[in-house]
Structures are given as structure tokens and as C-alpha cells.
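Quick one: co-fold with magnesium ion.
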Amino acid sequence: MMESDIDRILLRHEQIHRRVAELGAEIAKDYGEAEAGLTLLPILSGAMIFVADLIRELPLKMKIALTQISTYPGHATEPSEPRTVMELVGDLRGRHVIIVDDILDSGRTLRRVQEMARRHEPASQRTCVLLRKTAKAPPDIAADYVGFDIDDLFVVGYGLDFGDHYRNYPHIGVLRPEIMP
Ligand code: IMP
Ligand code: MG
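Sure, here it is.
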């Protein structure tokens, strides 16, 4: 059972949902008057649950582009060099782009995507993450919208995985130590 692999819950779904609604309101306020349209660029696969909830809090005409990066291959809990699985689906040129990721950890994934997005000459570019591991995030990789600052723990659920499992767990939690290597 998935549930029994979780040691403790860090953030309950209701709390996540309230914060996602706040982030949506903030983004709607910032981009409501923008002439060039808004495009959200979620980094798959981790951002898929977050972005699905976030866009339903945005009462704006907007588009979605996609990219996929793999940072923790297989059962790794220590990041390796990010691998671009799928570069870009969608057109960023002249758009107001918000890159969306589940978590800002070492910053290598976001650095890769921020550089890639810039090459497509968007009208503007910002970054939104649900979680930020404050201890590790380098100062030059900035996130403009942050859901929660968390301790340096490996977490799963709400899109975040371990070995591609637990993405469907509705809360964000920490695995029992014997599950992780
Ligand atoms: P970074 O490149 O080290 O900042 O790592 C960011 C990426 O690694 C995110 O897109 C996540 O998919 C993944 N990641 C980082 N920390 C965790 C974690 O605690 N649990 C699950 N995935 C994580
Ligand atoms: Mg990811």
C-alpha cells in the first residue's frame, strides 16, 4: 500500500490547495493587464499535478507549453546532471512565460530550463515553484513565486516522486527510512 510507505505528512492537501489558490490570485493580479499573453511552462513530470491545480485558479486567457527534464534517474535521491527528455512543446516567442516546477532544490533543473526558455525570446520570463529547499537553492536561481519553503528533506506526493511512484499521493510527505536507500 502506498499510504503505509509514508512516514509523516509535511503538507496536507487542503493546505497545499489554499496556497495554490493564493499563488493563482497573485499571478492573476500580476498578469491580468498584460498585453502579450501568458504561457505557463511546467517542467514534467513533477510539476503536472501542481500546474493542473494552478491553472484552474487563473481566470486569464492563457496557454500551456511543455518541457521534460529528468534530474533524479530511477531511485536516486541525490540529483545528477539534469537530462532534457523533451526540449519544448509550444511557442514562447513574445509571450509572458512562467516556468513552473514542483520543487527548487539544487537549482540545476531550473537553470537548464531558464536558459532554454530565454533562447526562445519571450516578452518576459518568471519562475514559480511549489516548494523551495531554502538550504540548497543558489541565490542566482531565483523563483518569483514560491508556495512553501521546506527543510532539506526528500519528499513525495502531489506530483513529486521516488522511483516514479507516489506522484498520486494527495499530500506531501516523507517516506519511511527503510524505503529509501
Ligand atoms: P534541482 O535541479 O536539484 O533543483 O531539482 C529539481 C528537480 O528534482 C525537481 O524538478 C524535482 O522533480 C526533483 N526533486 C528535487 N527534490 C525532490 C524531492 O525532495 N522529492 C522528489 N523530487 C525532487
Ligand atoms: Mg522535476
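If it helps, Residues 43, 46, 71, 101-102, 109 surround magnesium ion (ligand 2) (CB under 6 Å).
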